[in-house]
Amino acid sequence: GGTAAKTAFLLILVLAAGAWGWTLVDPQAGEVNIPIWWFFVLIGAVVLAVVTAFKPQLAIITGPLYAISQGVVIGAISHIYEAEFEGIIIQALLATASVFMVMLVLFVTRTIRVTNRMRGVIIGATLGIALFYLVSIVLSLFSVNMPFVWDSGPLGIGFSILVVGIASFNLMLDFDLIERGVAAQAPKFMEWFGAFALMLTIVWLYIDILRLLSKIRD
């Protein structure tokens, strides 16, 4: 219950900051003007995520800070996508909520059980995706684009479906983390860490669903 309340609080912060981030870009006539400090906010969000992963007891501070900074980032991104594909934001939000509910039901009913082997596979796949995105970002600095990330062809769409699937199963790991924490009577700060982990996955899921929908509509 504590984790659920804190997750709701963090998601409210994401939405509020996202509304502000939406106003930071002006996608008119095919041109997008993004303030330079927007990129520093993105880097700050990544740093906060890494710090929280290694210092869970700091989640009560880093969680809200991450929610605000990441909210600004995805708000700006959402405005760019909405300008190109009208109505795509509502579709992405509904799809994210639907995936969340489906995975929660599958977890609660034990239709899918989180085993040690499953954890290993999902964590390995997640690290692989993270490395792939990191390499693509570095290459983009040298004007080299990874085809799977932005390509709207069958391979690009297939890649995005794979990433959305991995993000969806990360929800299972979050649910399992929270449930095991309750069973083990974990310290109170783990409520914040569980909420942070859940929010992180939901944000990731939303961004990649947004990318998938844009490829399909393109």
Give an overview of the whole structure.
The structure is a single chain. The chain is mainly α. The protein has helices at 2-22, 37-54, 59-84, 88-108, 116-140, 147-150, 154-183, 189-217. Helix 1 packs across helix 8 (189-217), helix 4 crosses helix 8 and helix 5 (116-140) packs across helix 7. The longest helix is centred in the C-terminal third of the chain and has 30 residues, at 154-183. The radius of gyration is 17 Å and the shape is globular.
Radius of gyration: 17 Å
Structural class: mainly alpha
Number of helices: 8
Distance between the termini: 41 Å
State the helical fraction. Answer: over 70%
Summed over residues and divided by their number, the pLDDT gives a mean of: 89
The count of β-strands is 0
Strand share of the residues?
Answer: under 5%
One letter per element, helices H and strands E, the order comes to HHHHHHHH
Poorly predicted regions: none
Largest sheet: none
Principal-axis shape: globular
Task: Write the SSE topology.
Blueprint: H1 2-22, H2 37-54, H3 59-84, H4 88-108, H5 116-140, H6 147-150, H7 154-183, H8 189-217
Helix pairs in contact: 1-3, 1-8, 2-3, 3-8, 4-7, 4-8, 5-7, 7-8
